[in-house]
Each structure stands twice: as C-alpha cells, then as structure tokens.
Amino acid sequence: MRRRKARAEDDSQIDMTPMLDVVFIMLIFFIVTTSFVRESGLEVDRPSAATATEQTKAGIFVAIKDTGEIYIDNHQVDQQRVRASLERLIASQGEVGLVIQADKETRHGAVVGVMDAAREAGIKQISVAAQADK
To answer: What is the CATH number of the domain that holds 55?
Structure first.
C-alpha cells in the first residue's frame, strides 16, 4: 500500500524545465530586441519645435552648451578637434547618424561648425535635437 502512495506523489509533480526554457528564451529575445537610447550626458535647454520627430538611428551625440563648449561622449572637445573625434568614433562604430544637442542660447556659429566638421568626417545624417511642443 505504501508503494502505491509514493508513486502517486511522484507522478503529481510538475516538470518546470520546459517553462524555464521558455522564460529564458523570452528574456534573451527582449534583451536582443531592446533599443537603448543614448544621450550625450549633459543637460542642455533644447529649443522647442512643433514638428520635432524622434530620431531612432543616431549613434553619436554631440552636446553644445550655451557657453559654446562642445562635448562628445561626455568629454569636452576643442572646436578644432571635433572632426578628428568624430572620425575616430566612425571608425569604431561604423556609419552612424549624428544628433547635435545644442542649448537654445548657443550661438549659431558653434552649431554650424560642428555640422561642417561632421560632414568633413563623412557623416551623412545629421540632426539637431529639439524638444517637442506639448
């Protein structure tokens, strides 16, 4: 009689292995398909625009503060070294887009200078970040 009870208890357990396999596969799927938004790391007061759209294919972010200081990957870069820094990033990341995050008080010349350096470095897709009107 005891053998029959032991066998009934053993048969009533649920095998968790297939469920764990499915959970791990789903976890891997979500990790691989998730796109991470990178920012330049600096707080700039971006100008607002009614027609602002989200940029999804940007790989390089350049921040320009209202004082004219230029930051690429959280490192301050001199105006003359922007092109060399961008060329180095293109060599490591491949052909990617550029987003310029300029403060709304930034002088126009600083933004145009960064855009020229980016074009000379070989970047074809350049965007200027703006804050969407609400």
So the answer is: 3.30.420.270
